[in-house]
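If I may wish for something, please walk me through the protein I am sending here so I can picture the backbone:
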Amino acid sequence: METNNRRAFLKKAALAGASALVAPSLLATDARSESRPATRNEELQSKLIVPKNKGLKISGTFLDEISHDIPHQNWGEREWDLDFQHMKRIGIDTVIMIRSGYRKFMTYPSPYLLKKGCYMPSVDLVDMYLRLAEKYQMKFYFGLYDSGRYWDTGDLSWEIEDNKYVIDEVWKMYGEKYKSFGGWYISGEISRATKGAIDAFHTMGKQCKDVSNGLPTFISPWIDGKKAIMGTGKLTKEDAVSVQQHEKEWNEIFDGIHDVVDACAFQDGHIDYDELDAFFTVNKKLADKYGMQCWTNAESFDRDMPIRFLPIKFDKLRMKLEAAKRAGYDKAITFEFSHFMSPQSAYLQAGHLYDRYREYFEIK
């Protein structure tokens, strides 16, 4: 009898010990699924000493699932659904798949690209994004295919041939099926007068609009500023473009594409913070001249650090959004929410940036 009691006691003690070990693990899992620690005090707020709500709110984000230089988070539909909820909370109404494929990797089972030797994806991300966009009342922009040959040769015209087939098949597969299919992103990134750029943007933009009965198109080039270092190992360079030369070159580009490209969202991270007003004023003037919308691609990652790439310091993002509002920009999108602003990002700092953004814009 005494032995049985001792065994019963040891069994209870072992179970209690196991519970003590398992409970924190389960709590951590629950906290991650909610993207916040259970002990967080929502009542505490930062005491801002700058005026709130002076910036242009971010209402769009790229979806970087075929990544070039940031790590995959390996999310499934459950994580993506939660991320769309976080986006919706701060007023994001537009999601842009940055590219439908890069070299041999693809976001959807493209019959054309599979025949060319591209790899079969495990999930149809285009279909998933379109469904989630419909669920959360957002517009989805489809980013064109990037073969990588432009990056190898410096000639953007290489991208025309493949996208001739991609545009047609994507519209047949998804565009006629989903109301959330809201437009096109012509994904070739340039900064200056680039070989084949005007012809490539015009050819692809025209085909996108023709096949989809005029849905909007946009581009997101970068400014060849002091921080446009292209992986040299440095943080800045000496031969940055002047405001005057930037205006001259982009006046020529806009003149050649404005009839088939509806908006331009210049990336804002390659120039210094005291240069924002000068470049933004020129960008808005050119967009107005050619009847285009002027967006800003407010980068939510930090280019001022030797580590590529981490979530940006909030004040830097704030300054860029305030400059965009001063310049009268039409819309702010970001590259990109899921890695650099999401509460469930692999980067802990991203959730804190989300909180600071909500405090500044007084979003509950």
Summary: The radius of gyration is 23 Å. Confidence is low (pLDDT under 50) at residues 13-33. The chain has one domain: 52-361.
